[in-house]
Amino acid sequence: QYKSGIVSYCSTTQLDHAVLAVGYSPSFFKIKNSWGTQWGEDGYMRLKRGAGTRSTGTCGIIGPLSVYPQL
């Protein structure tokens, strides 16, 4: 169960839950979860940038089912 810190590894890249990337730094993405403020860091988590594979990213965050913003 995630509590805090920067997540750099997941046991799977199988997508099973939608989250929203709300920010980033050179080392991590800030992710908002839909499970409320009791989860993680007040409802958010930090996910390491540059981990995982080039095609899926950390925890499968970048993949064929990802939805990207249209600017």
From TrEMBL:
Residues 1-61 form the Peptidase C1A papain C-terminal domain. It holds the Pfam family Peptidase_C1. It comes from the Eukaryota. GO terms for molecular function: cysteine-type peptidase activity. GO terms for biological process: proteolysis. Keywords: Zymogen. SUPFAM superfamilies: Cysteine proteinases. InterPro entries: Papain-like_cys_pep_sf, Pept_his_AS, Peptidase_C1A, Peptidase_C1A_C. Belongs to the peptidase C1 family. This is Peptidase C1A papain C-terminal domain-containing protein. It comes from Phytophthora nicotianae (Potato buckeye rot agent).
